[in-house]
Design goal:
The structure holds two protein chains of two kinds. Chain A is mostly helical. Chain A has helices spanning 3-31, 47-60, 62-67, 69-89, 101-104, 107-133, 135-139, 143-165, 170-181, 192-207, 215-218, 223-226, 239-243, 246-251. Chain B starts with 32 loop residues before the first helix and ends with a helix. The chains are: A mainly alpha, B mainly alpha.
Chain lengths: 252, 515
């Protein structure tokens, strides 16, 4: 079997695991009731306020900023560059005549995405150094915590190699990716650095739904952040808690 | 004074280097069968406890979204590691919030996640932060989930809002379910559910105490301030922690509430059926027990035919009242909807002051320079008024209205970042004295800074547990045990009761000024 077929099949499997795994978790979170009002106070008293609170957590990592400026700067740098790199990568999977192409192809998006790699490396390296050097963080770290940082560092480093050191045939890669979308396997360039890059991405996709990377969907479902402070004016009752009330009506 | 080392107080918070196992010996008394069984828990450790632990954990994961999300989402970033007062005071790494959560999370990961099962089968569960469940792990749970006061300080600083209080409540619920309950909490819940209050004071004792207080206040002021109990048809039902009936400085707070109600001219009553604001059902994470205790308040309100419910000074009670009471015992459609249900005594007093309904002589409190200790459950788990942050501003506004000398402690130790007194969450028992004293260190440090730099003499609080805890631990740090005062003690002392001697003097002098 050629490398193209192996990688194509691996991508399909990894995508299935990622999508099914994450969707299952999201369904679990969404279905599980939050029986009590437990927002960390002071909390917004309106739904609009909660949207603002969530936005400041997800975009700016507000609570982390309050906690520790070092973790915040490294963590935020890493996540922001990840987002920029993601946008840059869109052009490898979007057909040239898609309406998105002019946006993705925009010089700024491409340039930011390219140089974000450096910020990503710095952010990840900072987090890794803290994990090793700060005794409290070292105490709570398992081997998987270090390996996850190394995995993403590997993805970033190989990606930057291709941007700045040894270019791969990007047109051929794009043919391969676009082919994947329509189940038509095209040849994949066989540069080692590209194959390593893609392998690491596949590993990342597979471990996503079975690891702490679930913090990404998790944060949206955190009751301490997404609940409105209105317990006195609006009765909040989970379905299983409502069932308990049968006895009360009788007793009253 | 103690058979353990009292932590030093520094000029500012120092994050200690970790020292493993310093508090591994700390463990509260286990509840005997007679305290377990009335709450619906087995009397002793059940035979198949490993299985029972996992069954209960699954049950909680399916009923509490927060629990499930918090188990999955922690990335071990370390943001919370220096935020817990018990870690700062004991240096024990298992008192870092994430490490405390991990005691439970590692079992979840081992038996309920693919990664944990896979690496567990290979014999290296620790590779992915998982671990086998055994007696050693269970003992760690019992020890360290009783070194958490569920104060939520860590949750303020967590990028995902992971709340160790939720994990510690779940862990205690699991332990109760397998027969490993804590004596202090479970004995108290039993008393509150049968007698009506945590101290087990029966109705005649309450009546007697309250009559004594009426005499004392009348002797003091010449005004007949009433302390009514079980009075049908009163407008307001006051629910207050039972410590208010006799403990110092709690009782001075109760006198303050009575004076405020007296001046407001409202009719009010307490209830012997619900003679307790505290709800230790929350501490043990038991929805059922918390609900049973809350329903006593509903019943008292219905039986007495009141129109409003007001809560006295108690931190976790106010959390249960503000955040959970409507859920647990609502809807309160039979009460007057023009007032908050329930209302905090500080909200009541604040409104009255705003309306000019109290005559106050601030100079009565001039012998003190005060600071305010934000109780964790008030600051981070409830609110007052109708704006975010009212729970932080309103008690201060009340204090400033009745005192001339007020100074806040350093900003990173108050408000939402307040340090727990060290005795909350079901730890206010003598068998946990060491962790209580050490856990108070960050608060004592902040207090010392305003004592040294601003001449502060007293610390005011609106929580029965904080008051009892400070009375005990202040002396360990060379402060006076009477440094701690009730907010409504300050209010009560400043109030000039209508018709009292001071009032008459005051009017006379006002009149002479006018002439």
């Amino acid at each position: 079997m050629s490398a193209s077929v192996v990688y194509a099949l691996a991508f399909y499997a990894a995508t299935a695991i990622l999508v099914i795994g994450v969707v299952r978790k999201i369904v679990q979170y969404a279905k599980t009731p939050a029986p009590l009002k437990i927002p960390t106070m002071p909390a917004p008293v309106t739904q609009g306020g909660v949207v603002m609170r969530m936005a400041s957590e997800i975009v700016l990592f507000n609570s982390l900023f309050k906690s520790n400026k070092w973790i915040w700067i490294f963590g935020w740098m890493f996540h922001l560059s990840l987002l920029l790199a993601f946008f840059r990568h869109m052009r490898y999977v979007i057909s040239p005549d898609s309406f998105l192409m002019p946006i993705i192809g925009f010089e700024m998006v491409q340039a930011f995405g390219k140089y974000a790699g450096f910020a990503m490396l710095i952010g990840l390296a900072g987090l890794l150094v803290r994990r090793i050097v700060v005794d409290r963080v070292r105490y709570i770290s398992s081997p998987s915590d270090y390996l996850m940082l190394l995995l993403i560092l590997g993805i970033a480093a190989t990606g930057m190699m291709m941007s700045f050191v040894s270019h791969v045939d990007i047109v051929m890669l794009k043919e391969f990716m676009l082919g994947l979308l329509v189940f038509n396997i095209q040849p994949l360039p066989t540069d080692t650095v590209l194959l390593v890059h893609l392998s690491l991405v596949i590993v990342l996709m597979v471990i996503f739904p079975i690891s702490k990377l679930l913090h990404a969907p998790g944060v949206f479902f955190s009751p301490t952040r997404n609940q409105v402070d209105n317990s006195r004016t609006k009765r909040h009752l989970a379905p299983w808690a409502a069932e308990l009330e049968a006895d009360r009506k009788a007793g009253e | 004074m103690a058979d353990f080392e009292i932590p030093e107080l520094n000029e500012y918070t120092v994050i200690p280097k970790l020292k493993e196992g310093t508090m591994a010996h700390s463990s509260p008394f286990i509840a005997k069968a007679k305290f377990q069984e009335p709450l619906g828990f087995p009397g002793e450790l059940v035979d198949n406890w490993e299985e029972a632990v996992l069954t209960k954990m699954d049950d909680l994961r399916s009923r509490y979204r927060g629990f499930q999300v918090f188990l999955d989402s922690c990335v071990k970033c370390g943001a919370c590691t220096d935020k817990c007062h018990y870690y700062l005071g004991t240096k024990d790494p298992k008192n870092m919030p994430v490490a405390r959560q991990d005691l439970l999370r590692k079992v979840y990961r081992r038996y309920r996640t693919f990664a944990g099962k896979f690496f567990g089968a290979l014999g290296i569960p620790g590779f992915v932060g998982a671990a086998d469940l055994n007696k050693e792990v269970l003992d760690d749970w019992y020890s360290y989930f009783h070194q958490c006061s569920q104060c939520r300080r860590c949750s303020v600083f967590c990028p995902y809002g992971i709340d160790t209080a939720e994990i510690s409540m779940a862990a205690r619920d699991i332990m109760d379910t397998i027969g490993m309950g804590q004596k202090y909490c479970n004995e108290i819940i039993g008393k509150a559910q049968t007698i009506g209050n945590n101290l087990g004071l029966p109705q005649p004792a309450l009546v007697d105490t309250l009559e004594g207080l009426e005499e004392e206040v009348e002797e003091d002021t010449g005004v007949a301030v009433k302390f009514p109990i079980d009075q049908k048809g009163a407008d307001i039902l006051l629910i207050t922690p039972s410590a208010d009936f006799f403990a110092e400085p709690h009782v001075d707070g109760l006198i303050g509430y009575a004076k405020v109600f007296h001046e407001a001219g409202v009719s009010w009553t307490m209830s012997s059926h619900a003679s307790e604001a505290a709800n230790f059902g929350m501490f043990i994470g038991s929805y059922d027990n918390m609900r049973k205790l809350s329903l006593r308040i509903r019943k008292a309100a219905l039986d007495l035919g009141v129109k409003r419910i007001v809560f006295g000074e108690c931190g976790h009670a106010w959390r249960v009242a503000y955040s959970f009471l409507n859920t647990l015992a609502g809807p309160f459609d039979f009460l007057d909807q023009n007032y908050p249900i329930p209302q905090h005594i500080c909200e009541f007093t604040y409104d009255l002051i705003q309306k000019g309904g109290l005559k106050l002589d601030k100079s009565e409190n001039d012998h003190m320079t005060l600071t305010f200790h934000d109780s964790c459950n008030v600051a981070r788990a409830s609110n007052m008024g109708n704006k975010p942050g009212g729970q932080i501003d309103i008690p201060r506004a009340v204090i400033k209205a009745v005192c001339n000398n007020y100074v806040d402690m350093p900003a990173d130790t108050i408000g939402e970042a307040t340090f727990c007194c060290g005795g909350g969450g079901g730890l206010l028992t003598d068998d946990l004295m060491e962790v209580r004293v050490k856990g108070a260190q960050p608060r004592m440090e902040a207090y010392k800074s305003v004592v040294d730099n601003h001449g502060v003499t007293n610390l005011a609080a609106i929580c029965a547990i904080c008051k009892a805890q400070f009375t005990k631990v202040l002396p360990y740090y060379n402060f006076g045990m009477t440094d701690i005062v009730s907010v409504h003690q300050l209010v009560g002392d400043a109030i000039i009761l209508t018709g009292s001697e001071d009032d008459v003097d005051n009017d006379a002098s006002n009149n002479s000024n006018e002439q």
